[in-house]
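queue> pop job 88
queue> type: inverse folding (structure -> sequence)
queue> payload:
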């Protein structure tokens, strides 16, 4: 085999595709690998550039191949697609496209996460999944009770009353079959809520052990949950040129459709991590409710000319930029009003 300089590595569950080229960009290796043979194959190669699409298992393989001396680059899948040959879609074509994309001078890459970063983000993902299940279970309980004319007020207190009725053998006029079904749903709801509380404690412990997370939490509207998620996901903040680039990575900047010198801005792009974006928007919504009555501030001037929802997105954008500045440059949040005074 001639000396390989660049490899496009298409990941899969069991069967992987390798596309390697030499320094003259001539194909020297094109083959499939079983999962058990991946490490052995790359161990025989001299150190080279390996490109992979950023996906679920990409960070694991990036760490393993880096230990063998290879330079690994993770590419967002959307940035690989333009290099796929038209009219063809298979693993070999994908690997060739990755091999081509990884050598482009202006290609943007995804930083390789450590095991600790992935573990902390898994706490957040598990928490989000359990919250979704709680919402589904709560809606199901309300709907089933409504079939028997039992209606509870909105909010946790009303749902708690239904859970108590379902779990206790009270005087509610329910058939035995319905009571058994709703008791199972109510028990699962309580179990999910207990697991969410346990995950919250784990996330808080991670936050308290991370100096960067604690500094980000000094931003108004950013608590341990948001700070922990941001620090785990962003990795090295200096890979972003400025705060606006970071906000764009989160999808909190308006989409552009401009031409001929005429600027046309639309809704936010909603690119990037939906979970991080939703956390920032929720934090900004809480801030907006608390500060709505202020006078003479940036937020007051924004609310005077924009709707509440637009102001919320703008505030979330500002929070993201501030978080980037703290992570990239150090320090903690300084209140502009206090600094001016």
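queue> result:
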């Amino acid at each position: 085999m001639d000396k390989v300089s660049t490899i496009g590595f298409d990941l899969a569950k069991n069967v992987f595709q390798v596309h390697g080229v030499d320094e003259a960009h001539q194909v020297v290796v094109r083959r499939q690998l079983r999962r058990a043979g991946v490490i052995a194959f790359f161990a025989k190669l001299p150190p080279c550039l390996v490109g992979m699409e950023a996906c679920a298992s990409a960070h694991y393989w990036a760490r393993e191949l880096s230990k063998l001396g290879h330079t690994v680059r993770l590419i967002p899948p959307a940035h690989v697609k333009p290099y796929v040959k038209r009219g063809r879609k298979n693993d070999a074509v994908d690997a060739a496209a990755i091999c081509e994309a990884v050598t482009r001078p202006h290609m943007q890459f995804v930083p390789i996460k450590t095991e600790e970063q992935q573990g902390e983000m898994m706490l957040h993902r598990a928490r989000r999944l359990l919250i979704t299940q709680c919402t589904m279970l709560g809606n199901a309980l309300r709907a089933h009770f409504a079939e028997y004319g039992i209606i509870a007020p909105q909010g946790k207190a009303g749902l708690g009353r239904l859970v108590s009725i379902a779990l206790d053998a009270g005087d509610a006029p329910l058939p035995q079959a319905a009571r058994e079904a709703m008791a199972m749903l109510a028990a699962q709801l309580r179990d999910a809520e207990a697991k969410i509380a346990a995950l919250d404690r784990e996330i808080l412990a991670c936050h308290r052990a991370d100096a960067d997370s604690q500094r980000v939490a000094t931003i108004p509207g950013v608590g341990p949950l948001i700070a922990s998620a941001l620090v785990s996901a962003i990795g090295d903040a200096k890979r972003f040129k400025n705060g606006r680039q970071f906000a764009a990575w989160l999808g909190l900047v308006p989409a552009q459709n401009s031409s001929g010198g005429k600027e046309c801005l639309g809704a936010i792009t909603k690119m990037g991590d939906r979970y991080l974006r939703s956390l920032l928007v929720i934090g900004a919504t809480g801030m907006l409710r608390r500060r709505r009555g202020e006078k003479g501030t940036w937020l007051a001037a924004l609310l005077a000319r924009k709707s509440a929802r637009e102001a919320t997105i703008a505030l979330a954008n500002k929070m993201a930029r501030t978080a980037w500045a703290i992570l990239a440059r150090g320090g903690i949040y300084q209140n502009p009003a206090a600094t001016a005074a």
